[in-house]
Amino acid sequence: MKDYKEPFEEIKKLVEKQKYEDAADLLEPFLEEIESAYQSQKGKAFSFNHILEVYEYEYFKKPMIPPEYTDINISAFYRFYGFVFMHLNLFTEAIKAYEKALSWNPVDLDAILQLMELYKRTG
Fold first, then answer.
1. Using CA atoms, how far apart are residues 38 and 15, in angstroms rounded to an integer?
2. Does residue 1 have a pLDDT over 60?
């Protein structure tokens, strides 16, 4: 994928200014571009936050082949997307974003805990 840092910095600035709708509008095409760039690796490559998550993944998921790794932390971008949706009180969309985060990092404790909170809020 091309450089992603500059557009993401712009999105983060919008969130800092609490312009969540504007951030969500920019995040959607940003994530679509990332998804299309990494589509062939989905389910084979993961975005772990640190080395302990790799061990956790291998212990609990017991994959048949060792995982590959993405160049960028796609899971973190989806967690951020979920965060934006939570501030917009769009809980269903936030749940979908956190589930996407878990598809790129199935042992991401932050995403799991946020999902638990959202499930409580939505009943």
1. 25
2. no
Residue 8 backbone dihedrals phi, psi, to 5 degrees: -70, -35
Three-state DSSP state, 46: strand
Q: Check: CB of residue 64 under 8 Å from CB of residue 45.
A: no
Q: Which of 12, 3, 101 is CA-nearest to residue 49? A: 101
The average confidence (pLDDT) of the chain is 94
Position of tokens 């999105």? 11
3-class secondary structure, 56: helix
Locate 33 and state its tokens: 């571009």
Q: What is the pTM of this model?
A: 0.92
- Here the tokens at position 16 are 């800092």
Cβ contact 119:60 at 8 Å? no
User: Which residues are CB-contacts of 18 (< 8 A; sequence separation ≥ 6)?
Assistant: 87
Please give the Cα distance from 48 to 27 (Å, whole number): 21
